[in-house]
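Re: the request from the purification team.
They wanted to know what the chain is likely to look like in 3D before they choose a buffer screen. I agreed to run a prediction and write the result into the notebook, where they can find it.
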Amino acid sequence: MIPKGKLISIGGAEDKGTEAEPDFIQKNNLNFFELGILKKVVEEIGGSDSHIEVITTASSIPEEVGENYTRAFGKIGCNNIGIMHIKNRNDADNPEFIERIKNCDGVMLSGGNQLRLTTILGGTDLMQIIHQRYENEDFTVAGTSAGAMAMSNTMIYHGNSTTAHLKGEVRITTGLAFIQNVIIDSHFEKRGRFGRLAQAVGCNPSCIGIGLGEDTGLIIKEGQYFQGIGSGCVIIVDGHKIRHSNIADIPEGSPISLENLIVHVMVDGDRYDLKERVFHGDFISLMEEH
């Protein structure tokens, strides 16, 4: 089934509420909101009058993150913003939240811990409604950092950059499954996460790896057509043509070896066809060609 809605996956920035790796120095600001990404989200959802619900489930400081989103959206003239502090599975059954999801124009999943998103929202009626609206309506699901990583069916939930080249150091589980056959990683450049995405794709070569840089993202239409947005780059890692891989044979903790991993670098306006696994620079709408 071809979904009628859109996904917007954003690599994040040095934003509050996003849990860093132990060796990463966290700076507390939301500067990427002022650089155009949030304006693009609002535009894709339907403009400044759109009703957008922000779900702060991933964050360990949801109230602060909610205030930051309300303020950030307000700066660009979008004031019909709802904040949902869904902290446990009982909260996800709240009839008020369910009714708001039924009537909004799009949702935004905040950063934080992607495992909180999947364990709290996975299998709930609220998430089922979001899925149904995304599949059957012109409904947008946006997510930044952890919110972006949880969009795929296969989700990285652990992997320190310094040891990600060692077998077993990258851990994978099932995400929220808005899109199949991809693995999404965020904060890709500043946290040096190429190694962990390479291992994730090496273990799941049927998947396309997506590494999202800060202040950078993808608009995904029909579950297939990618368009780069933002000021940085998106790394596409294709493992379909891997020839040599030692992952199955080496013991845990040993360095992995992969041959013929294909890598593309996308910037704002570039496009990629997931089904055909074809990269196109200088964006020309794929939607007009099909």
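For the purification team: The radius of gyration is 18 Å.
Please add any questions underneath this entry.
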